[in-house]
């Protein structure tokens, strides 16, 4: 298959590209490099060559002409704006980049005969769920423009598929992605990140002098929030499984997580243990909109697709995040 990976220079896109490069698929990458890294692209080109298009998805004319020229069979669509806090300050950026640009991409796929679309969605579409474990059928009620912009893209995909049944999609709702593969220069680069494992890794690597626990009075075993952390290489392999699934099946939606979680305190303890670094942690008030527990019901992807997670180990995830932080 000839596959276009949008956002392939970013964190999850580059890890996925690395795995796809080990298959027989012909690969192309589109990225505007607003957050992605050309170093990652250059590094990955040492596995084998692929075309890289530095292009913004909002350039509809160029995107269309690229699709007409290259005749892709499938798209794996990562490119998006991804910061929840920024989405509350600048919602239109999120609706434009995530919903409008994705809608145009779907339209372009339909117009140029690209019939397989793998979409990066998020657990943020569930908002603050009533249950700690959420299945694909749990109510969708995102509480920020980032989550809403992704849910709207899901709706567009579903409606496009109803009107054009030959156009099939797989929506992957990721839980908390973390860690890095260590053989290429492709970890999480975000400055000012708020993602727990990244922040803890930065503390251990002495890039921050302290971190905060936001609330220790939740109804959990140690009072801190519990999340489902998944290694980026397991998220990446889910895209290969999803593409394979679409060859034989109709469109579908899958949670991608491990189906169990760790508390904030457990993550910090793991980071300190695997790095041998004791860093400063302070208690701060709860943040608005943080559910106490958010864990995926991940049975569906395990049952229906060939996906086999290999890195379900918190210490390993923390160690890889730390090793990346030290080298980048
Ligand atoms: N990181 C997570 O924990 C997480 C969780 C759930 C879902 N997701 C989703 O996964 C996808 C990838 O996330 P990531 O963490 O790798 O983010 P990232 O910022 O590292 O990657 C996104 C990439 O898209 C590119 N991009 C953004 N807008 C573009 C545009 N208009 N045109 C072309 N390229 C553009 C950026 O340059 C970047 O390389 C996103 O869709 C995100 O919503 C991420």
UniProtKB/TrEMBL annotation:
Subunit: Homodimer.
Domain NAD-dependent epimerase/dehydratase: 3-257
Primary enzyme class: isomerase
MF GO annotations: UDP-glucose 4-epimerase activity
Reactions catalysed according to its record: UDP-alpha-D-glucose = UDP-alpha-D-galactose
Keywords: Carbohydrate metabolism, Isomerase, NAD
Cofactor(s) this protein cannot do without: NAD(+)
Family: Belongs to the NAD(P)-dependent epimerase/dehydratase family.
Protein name: UDP-glucose 4-epimerase
Gene Ontology BP annotations: galactose catabolic process via UDP-galactose, Leloir pathway
Pathway(s) the chain acts in: Carbohydrate metabolism; galactose metabolism
Enzyme Commission number: 5.1.3.2
């Amino acid at each position: 298959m000839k596959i276009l990976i949008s956002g392939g220079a970013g964190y999850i896109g580059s890890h996925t590209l690395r795995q796809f490069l080990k298959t027989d698929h012909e690969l192309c990458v589109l990225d505007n490099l607003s957050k992605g890294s050309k170093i990652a692209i250059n590094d990955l080109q040492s596995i084998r060559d692929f075309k890289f298009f530095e292009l913004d998805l909002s350039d509809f004319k160029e995107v269309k002409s690229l699709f007409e020229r290259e005749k892709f069979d499938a798209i794996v669509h990562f490119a998006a704006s991804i910061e929840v806090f920024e989405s509350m300050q600048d919602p239109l950026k999120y609706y434009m980049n995530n919903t409008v640009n994705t809608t145009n991409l779907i339209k372009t796929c339909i117009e140029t005969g690209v019939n397989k679309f793998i979409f990066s969605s998020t657990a943020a579409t569930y908002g603050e769920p009533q249950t700690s474990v959420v299945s694909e059928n749990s109510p969708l009620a995102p509480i920020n423009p980032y989550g809403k912009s992704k849910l709207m893209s899901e709706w567009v995909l579903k409606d496009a598929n109803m009107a054009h049944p030959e156009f099939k999609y797989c929506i992957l709702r990721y839980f908390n992605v973390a860690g890095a593969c260590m053989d290429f220069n492709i970890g999480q680069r975000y400055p000012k990140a708020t993602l727990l494992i990244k922040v803890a890794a930065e503390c251990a690597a002495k890039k921050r002098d302290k971190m905060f626990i936001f609330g220790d009075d939740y109804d959990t075993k140690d009072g801190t929030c519990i999340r489902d952390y998944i290694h980026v290489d397991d998220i990446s392999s889910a895209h290969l499984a999803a593409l394979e699934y679409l060859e034989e099946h109709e469109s579908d939606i899958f949670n991608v997580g491990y189906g169990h979680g760790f508390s904030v305190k457990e993550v910090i303890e793991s980071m300190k243990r695997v790095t041998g670094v004791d860093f400063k942690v302070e208690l701060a008030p709860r943040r608005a909109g943080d559910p106490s527990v958010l864990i995926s019901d991940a049975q569906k992807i395990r049952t229906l697709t060939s996906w086999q997670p290999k890195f379900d180990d918190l210490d390993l995830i923390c160690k890889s995040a730390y090793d990346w932080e030290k080298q980048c």
